[in-house]
Specification:
Keywords: DNA-binding, Transcription, Transcription regulation. It comes from Micromonospora musae. One of its GO terms (molecular function) is transcription cis-regulatory region binding. InterPro entries: Homeodomain-like_sf, HTH-type_TetR-like_transc_reg, HTH_TetR, Tet_transcr_reg_TetR-rel_C_sf. The chain contains nine helices and two strands; from the N terminus they run ββααααααααα. A hairpin with a 5-residue loop joins strand 1 and strand 2. The protein has 224 residues and is mainly α. 26% of the residues are buried. It has two domains: 66 residues, Tetracycline Repressor, domain 2; 124 residues, Orthogonal Bundle (Tetracycline Repressor, domain 2), CATH 1.10.357. Helix 4 packs across helix 6.
């Protein structure tokens, strides 16, 4: 006897686990093509997420090392995706940069807000320098996020403004203790932050050690 193709299915013949129902409520088996089709959306979502992360990682590395003038095609090449895939996810370089660095800016904001809550403002001020310098030494993208202009990146700009407000308030409180020199301005902190980015080393651990030393020297210079 020839069995109609539509009746073929994989799995045990009994039970509801391998059965679907028609619109009229009648039971019918899964077909092989249906199970494959069901897996496709998940696979496509997984591939898309993987591509997105590869693009963002490549963008962070390229922007941090070479600045914002790197062509989008070069970022696509380093991410191992086609230009069409890159532009479909991120139509402009500004959109890509904003997405790539918002996470780094959030980390800076968290540090500033946590140290602002320190009951000893001078200690909080010193810890901000130490923690930001170490974060920067471990992730070069932090400097780009903090110092580059992203006019259309609303979320990134908002995070940066919140960070700067917390740093400004912490500076004011530290000055009131008499331990932070009276002529210190917030731009001085940005200046040493950018100088710390100029430290180069063959390994992350060496760069972190150098940043810690530089942080100690900066704190000593800022103390009244």
């Amino acid at each position: 006897m020839v069995v109609p193709l539509r009746e073929l299915y994989l799995g045990p013949p009994e039970g509801d686990a391998c059965v679907r129902r028609n619109v009229n409520g009648r039971r019918r088996p899964f077909s092989y093509s249906e199970t494959v089709a069901d897996d496709l959306p998940h696979k496509l979502r997984s591939d898309a997420l993987d591509n997105r992360e590869r693009i963002l990682e490549a963008a962070r590395a390229v922007f941090a090392a070479e600045g914002m003038d790197v062509p989008m095609r070069e970022i696509a090449r380093r991410a191992g995706v086609g230009p069409a895939t890159l532009y479909r996810r991120f139509p402009t370089k500004q959109a890509l940069a904003a997405e790539a660095f918002t996470e780094q800016m959030q980390a800076c904001r968290t540090i500033a807000e946590e140290e602002l809550a320190d009951p000893d403002p001078w200690h909080g001020f010193c810890r901000v320098i130490e923690r930001l310098f170490e974060l920067q030494a471990r992730n070069r993208g932090v400097t780009t996020a903090f110092t580059s202009a992203f006019p259309h990146a609303i979320d990134l700009t908002a995070e940066r403004e919140r960070t700067l407000r917390s740093l400004a308030e912490l500076t004011r409180r530290a000055k009131e203790t008499g331990q932070l020199r009276s002529d210190f301005v917030l731009d001085d902190l940005i200046l040493v932050f950018m100088a710390n980015n100029g430290l180069h080393a063959t390994s992350t651990s060496t760069r972190v050690a150098a940043s810690r030393r530089f942080a100690a020297l900066a704190i000593r210079a800022f103390r009244s």
